[in-house]
Design goal:
The chain is globular. About 0% of the residues have low confidence. It is about 65% helix and about 0% strand. With about 550 residues, the protein is mostly helical. The longest helix is centred in the middle third of the chain and has 36 residues.
């Protein structure tokens, strides 16, 4: 069987292709890999994989490495959390390592490999659950799945920017919105499947992994095989490039990925993204306990602190806090599309300035709201912060394209995602360790997050400084005509419509019904996921 149809030269679209087929194709992959955010739904049942009703605890002398292979006791939730850590370590590293390769082979091949890795990793994890071998789960979902995450995350970015030069922020915002929304679909779906498959002798996680891998594989392959690229230099009819309007922050030239580590603008944007993500991801990880500890019994109309609540009252405020977490998720996903689209009007630098100025002010106000016991301002501030957290992810690919050109933006984006991996460690460490430190000092639980908010505001101020220092890239870094022509040949670019071969019966025309079907295919599950999140959020009352 030949795999030539995966080659980049077979994905070049002709003049009649409808570019609006590309966002749902990207969403089909991002909505699946976005389940990485929702894997915590498996931790509790997996911690009872042997005991079923209650966990069978390992003896005190069983360390982490022994736990990788032991079959006579259940895994600890803290051990299972290493899968989540590996997801994002390998997402960032694989995106950085293979971003340049992706630009040469095209998004279709990368998308197919992403589907094989993500879904194949889940199947290997299912085998690990069946044999109770945690090392198989780490290799399956953590390593192989993490590589699938990285390739799947960046595979549509360069493609969408090339199809939507007039709406770069909106286009990437739509795709990356899917990554934020993947857990909205995957988490409740996984809960329903585990409930369906659970028996007296099985918690139902293993068959759930198999079922979800099968569903995801269909969606991801459909998305990857739909990927198309325009001919090099393609522009929408009637559009005037921004660079011609004297906006020096948008270049018509291109930087080679091999040089980005030498360019100060890359590192300034790296720092800006790292600070924004560090501040936001720290809040995401502690949003539920933070709300419960700050407001305690006030969440259910009782004048009690968190430490004064009994077990039923603690269970009641936990339900309210779950609704708050769902509300934050809605703002996270909505912010990706809203801020990405708005950046097309305001420009990327100004949009990032809003993130940092407004975000730091909101962190200071959240601290004051906690002290004053004002739930409305506290929740409203964090919702806006999370919208800007998601907005940064959606806006940064377009920011890169503006600064470094579009020829290798996917590869450069992969390099930049190392900022995400760094922030994934920095943000939670600041929030978690500051909380433990202040509790150790005897500070009441409702006050332990105040200084943390000030530190997170400080991170955003550092990000603001990085963003303010960003200037147009020096001309010396742009590829010369001969170098650009060589790169285009390596990337199998086609310069003119007439160079596109008749290699695919869908290349030169797009039936409008196909566009509608594609949007319905991703829109229905996304709407269902949003509906479930809204229902959960309704449990939270201001």
């Amino acid at each position: 069987m030949t795999l030539d149809f995966l080659d980049k030269k077979h994905t070049i679209a002709g003049a009649g292709f409808n570019r609006w087929l590309m966002p749902p194709a990207a969403l089909a992959i991002h909505l699946c890999i976005g389940m990485a955010y929702g894997f915590s739904v498996f931790w509790l049942p997996l911690s009872k994989a042997i005991g079923i009703k209650q966990s069978v605890a390992c003896s005190a002398d069983v360390g982490f490495f022994t736990e990788l292979f032991i079959t006579t006791c259940d895994w600890k939730i803290s051990t299972l959390g290493w899968m989540y850590t590996l997801f994002f370590v390998f997402l960032g590293s694989s995106a950085a390592l293979w971003g340049g390769w992706l630009e040469h082979v095209g998004p279709r091949r990368a998308g197919v490999i992403s589907a094989l890795c993500w879904c194949g990793g889940m199947l290997l994890s299912a085998l690990g659950i069946y044999t109770h071998q945690f090392w198989l789960m780490l290799i399956g979902s953590g390593v192989i799945g993490g590589i699938g995450l990285g390739l799947g995350y960046i595979s549509p970015v360069s493609m969408l920017i090339k199809w939507f030069p007039d709406r770069r922020g909106m286009a990437t915002g739509m795709a990356i919105m899917g990554f934020g929304g993947g857990a909205m679909i995957g988490s409740p779906l996984a809960t329903l499947l585990m409930k369906h498959f659970a028996t007296e002798t099985d918690v139902g996680v293993m068959p759930t992994f198999v079922a979800m891998a099968s569903i995801y594989f269909v969606f991801m392959m459909a998305g990857a095989l739909t990927y198309r690229l325009p001919v090099s230099g393609w522009q929408p009819a009637g559009w005037i490039p921004v660079a011609s309007t004297q906006n020096k922050m948008v270049t018509p030239h291109h930087v080679h990925v091999k040089n980005v580590f030498k360019i100060k603008q890359f590192w300034l944007l790296w720092g800006a993204l790292c600070m924004n993500v560090s501040a936001g991801i720290g809040v995401i990880g502690m949003s539920s306990p933070m709300l419960q500890e700050v407001f305690g019994g006030k969440l259910i109309g009782l004048a009690k602190t968190y430490g004064e609540l009994d077990k039923p009252e603690l269970a009641a405020i936990a339900i309210v806090a779950a609704g708050f977490t769902a509300l934050l998720s809605l703002f996270n996903i909505g912010g990706r599309f809203f801020w990405g689209s708005l950046s097309d009007k305001l420009g990327r630098k100004l949009t990032f300035m809003i993130f940092f100025v407004a975000g730091s002010a909101l962190y200071f106000s959240v601290s004051g709201s906690a002290i004053a016991g004002n739930k409305l301002l506290f929740v409203g501030g964090l919702c806006l912060i999370l919208s800007m957290y998601g907005g940064a992810f959606a806006t940064v690919p377009a920011y890169l394209a503006d600064l470094f050109g579009t020829q290798m933006v996917g590869a450069i984006h992969g390099r930049l995602l190392t900022a995400w991996a760094t922030a994934g460690v920095l943000g939670p460490v600041i929030v978690n360790y500051m909380r433990d430190y202040q509790l150790g000092l005897g500070i009441p639980r409702e006050q332990v997050y105040n200084q943390t908010m000030w530190i997170l505001a400080g991170l955003l101020i550092i990000g603001l400084i990085c963003n303010l220092l960003i200037r147009p890239v020096d001309e010396k870094w742009f590829m010369l005509p001969d170098e650009l022509a060589k790169e285009k040949r390596l990337a199998q670019d086609r310069i003119h419509d007439e160079e596109v071969g008749e290699t695919d019966d869908m290349v030169n025309s797009t039936p409008i019904i196909l566009v509608y079907v594609a949007w319905l295919a991703v829109g229905i599950p996304l709407t269902w996921g949003i509906y479930r999140a809204v229902v959960a959020a309704m449990a939270f009352s201001l």
